[in-house]
């Protein structure tokens, strides 16, 4: 009885702890958030500071060549340096796709909304919410009206119902942070339950698990009475390992964004973090966008199983 109470308390503490920083962090995520992300075109304009840049004079105006190049580059990218054109195969791959997840995934939604002139950001759909976790996702909307499920068409709906209404076919799932107050095996079981519930209502959809991204270096949070896990990077790695195995066993996709944002030591790179915890800035979401492109290519732009994609590539 005591152990059960402690675990439940730990789960509630985790959700409260993560969501307490979520709103402030999300407010910083957008076209102007985070460090400037250079693009290839912008980088080509960098010159030796000791050199005197050439100037161009036209009709009473004087402009350096660097300024001209910089203006041309900005006209070809979004505010965060995303291109205004994408490989059509990538866009076709993400047609009818939706990302489900918590406040970190919701940050990607805000980033996408601020960069909609990039076709990939305009293509993706989102069912994300701050404080969202697997426990709440599994509770029927009619059973508890107080749960803030992701909003679709102005209503708080279970994701399986929203997916049906939007006719989505490809489901990308990002959970973990608001669930880390419980044992890894229980988190994995809830992931599976949610996937099965979505499938029951939407039998034609396919799934891709997105790795839970790492936590800021040195950040850790233990739970009263719990010794075998904590809110820390070792627990995140354990969860990712188990979900990757499960994806392979069930023919689901697996997208590894965690390592793309790593500092090389198994932590979230501080350059990508807004709150010294888990929430991420625009520079991080530029990396997310690239991971989505790379994932489509790794699947040979096909939504078959990973084995099917590999066989087609050969």
Short description:
With 314 residues, the chain is α/β, with parallel strands linked by helices.
Task: Give a structural overview.
- The chain is 44% helix and 11% strand.
- It has 314 residues and is α/β, with parallel strands linked by helices.
- It has a single domain, classed as SGNH hydrolase (Rossmann fold).
- The strands form three sheets. Strands 4-3-7-8-9 form a five-stranded parallel β-sheet, with helices on both faces.
- It is globular, with a radius of gyration of 21 Å.
- The termini are far apart.
- Residues 1-13, 19-73 and 309-314 have low confidence and may be disordered.
Topology pattern, helix = H, strand = E:
HHEEHHEHHEHEEHEHEHEHH
Q: What is the percentage of strand-forming residues?
A: 5-15%
Stretches where pLDDT is under 50 for at least 5 consecutive residues are: 1-13, 19-73, 309-314
Gyration radius, rounded: 21 Å
CATH second-level architecture:
3-Layer(aba) Sandwich
Count of helix runs: 12
As laid out across the biggest beta sheet, the strand order is 4-3-7-8-9
Q: What is the CATH C level class, in words?
A: Alpha Beta
Largest sheet, described in full? 5 strands, parallel
Broad shape: globular
Kindly list the characteristics that best describe this protein.
314 residues; 12 helices; alpha/beta; disordered C terminus; 11% strand; two-stranded antiparallel sheet; Rossmann fold; disordered N terminus; 44% helix
């Amino acid at each position: 009885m005591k152990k059960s109470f402690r675990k439940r308390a730990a789960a509630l503490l985790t959700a409260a702890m993560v969501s307490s920083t979520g709103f402030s962090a999300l407010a910083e995520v957008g076209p102007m958030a985070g460090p400037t992300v250079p693009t290839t075109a912008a980088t080509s304009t960098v010159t030796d500071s000791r050199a005197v840049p050439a100037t161009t004079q036209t009709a009473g105006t004087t402009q350096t060549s660097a300024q001209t190049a910089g203006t041309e580059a900005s006209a070809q990218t979004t505010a965060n340096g995303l291109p205004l054109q994408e490989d059509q195969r990538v866009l076709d791959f993400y047609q009818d796709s939706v990302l489900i997840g918590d406040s970190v995934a919701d940050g990607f939604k805000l980033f996408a909304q601020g960069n909609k002139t990039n076709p990939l950001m305009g293509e993706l759909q989102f069912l994300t919410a701050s404080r969202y976790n697997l426990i709440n996702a599994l509770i029927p909307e009619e059973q508890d009206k107080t749960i803030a499920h992701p909003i679709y068409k102005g209503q708080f709906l279970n994701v399986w119902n929203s997916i049906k209404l939007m006719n989505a076919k490809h489901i990308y799932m990002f959970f973990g942070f608001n669930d880390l107050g419980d044992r890894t095996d229980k988190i994995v079981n809830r992931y599976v339950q949610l996937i099965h519930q979505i499938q029951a209502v939407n039998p034609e959809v396919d799934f891709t698990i997105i790795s839970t991204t790492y936590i800021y270096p040195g950040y850790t949070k233990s739970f009263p009475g719990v010794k075998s896990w904590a809110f820390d990077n070792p627990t995140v790695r354990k969860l990712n390992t188990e979900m990757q195995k499960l994806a392979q066993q069930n023919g689901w996709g697996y997208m590894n964004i965690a390592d793309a944002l790593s500092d090389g030591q198994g932590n979230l790179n501080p350059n990508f973090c807004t709150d010294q915890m888990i929430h991420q800035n625009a520079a991080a979401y530029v990396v997310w966008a690239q991971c989505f492109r790379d994932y489509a290519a790794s699947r040979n732009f096909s939504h078959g199983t990973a084995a099917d994609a590999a066989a087609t590539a050969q």
